[in-house]
Specification:
single chain; Rossmann fold; 4-stranded parallel beta sheet; 13 strands; globular
């Protein structure tokens, strides 16, 4: 392990990694893990990956858990990068791929963040873990906490998809349903966590979920022969995956694994909850809370994200953008994609396919560019959307 310290993403203050931390105590912004990549690169090479297990822990040298500690794992990562032909042919694309995160444990990309975050929380002595969630993060925390022998306290909006609620309860978590949004769930945890002895596992309010999510970038580069695509479309709620991939790209460049070329990153949100889209279009550096947030894609119903400034910075630095998609279009796209490719995508993932149609019609993305869409979960978790 080459982890050296934690650093605030805003003010730059550093923190000792051997203690439990949430956000920066000065400016209350997210903390990033930093590594001695020069030292790691002496033995951690692209060639060294040959023969390693098909798991995100194959990148152990740039993940936070000390080498002597056993990860809390359910076999996450190593998801397929699938070429799309029939759906792509319909709109004229020749080099379209989907990274299918629905094949992770608990059927979503949230497993990536929770394996690293729960592993570190256990290693650093946490006993009770709490998270506000729109669904899939709760299911992942419940599963990994159970695997670790820790208690999980899950706070969900009342209208969270039923599959997520049942999943959390059946793996032993304490589930509380809140009349409100994920932000209300987060406020309830903040109010009670000190008295209850909970460690807050909220998106980007602890430093290690993003470390698991960054392996999306490492895997993508490895699967494409260490050349990044021209365009990435990513469904964005809290934005940890988008932020994590960008961090991975910078790390890989330092390691000498890739060059300085970056994909154009596009954030896709729901029309009923699009704070990043609004802020991007207005030229703002941060996003105000989106009023009356509503969408069937529960993972996109995040009216205010703590990592908003990081997402907006990435979208602009990459030459990408942000788009909002109506619920009806993402639900319709689920069936079109499924019938063409056999992939039952979550509404969040389907929203990216609907967004690509828009980008193509505007001439923003050319049909001969290499495009990767991230499907962040399985449609089986959202059955109410399709009834």
């Amino acid at each position: 392990m080459s982890l050296t310290n934690l650093r605030c993403t805003a003010c730059g203050r550093t923190y000792e990694w051997r203690q439990l931390h949430n956000v920066c105590t000065v400016c209350h912004k997210p903390l990033f893990a930093e590594y001695d990549l020069i030292a790691a690169g002496h033995t951690f090479t692209r060639e060294s990956l040959a023969g390693r297990t098909k798991s995100l822990w194959r990148y152990r040298e740039v993940l936070p858990l000390p080498a002597e500690a056993e990860p809390v794992s359910l076999g996450e990562g190593g998801t397929p990068l699938l070429p799309l032909t029939r759906w792509a042919k319909e709109i004229g694309f020749s080099n379209l791929w989907v990274k299918d995160e629905g094949q992770n444990p608990t059927q979503s990309f949230k497993a990536r963040g929770m394996t690293t975050a729960v592993s570190m929380a256990k290693y650093l002595g946490a006993k009770k873990l709490a998270v506000p969630t729109a669904g899939n993060a709760g299911g992942a925390l419940a599963a990994y906490a159970a695997r670790a022998g820790l208690e999980a306290y899950i706070f969900m909006p009342n209208d969270t998809p039923r599959a997520n609620v049942i999943e959390c309860r059946e793996v032993g978590a304490h589930v509380t349903l809140i009349d409100g949004l994920i932000t209300d769930c987060g406020a309830e945890i903040a109010r009670r966590k000190e008295a209850e002895g909970w460690f807050d596992m909220s998106t980007l309010k602890e430093p290690y979920r993003v470390e698991g999510k960054k392996t999306l970038g490492y895997e993508l580069a490895e699967q494409l022969g260490w050349k990044l695509p021209d365009v990435i479309l990513y469904p964005t709620g809290g934005g940890t995956g988008l932020i994590g991939m960008w961090k991975a790209f910078d790390e890989m460049e330092t390691l000498g694994w890739i060059d300085s070329k970056r994909p154009r990153m596009f954030s896709v949100q729901a029309a009923g909850c699009a704070p990043i889209v609004r802020a991007f279009e207005a030229g703002e550096e941060s996003a105000v809370e989106f009023p009356n947030a509503q969408t069937k894609a529960s993972g996109l119903r995040v009216p205010k994200a703590i990592g908003d400034f990081l997402m907006l910075r990435i979208l602009r630095a990459s030459g990408g953008g942000a788009l909002a998609v109506e619920d009806e279009k993402m639900i319709a796209e689920t069936r079109l994609l499924g019938a063409a490719e056999g992939l039952f995508a979550a509404p969040e993932g389907a929203a990216c396919f609907a967004a690509l149609r828009v980008l193509y019609s505007l001439g923003t993305v050319a049909p001969d560019e290499q495009v990767v869409i991230f499907n962040t979960g399985s449609g089986v978790k959202y059955l109410e959307c399709y009834e």
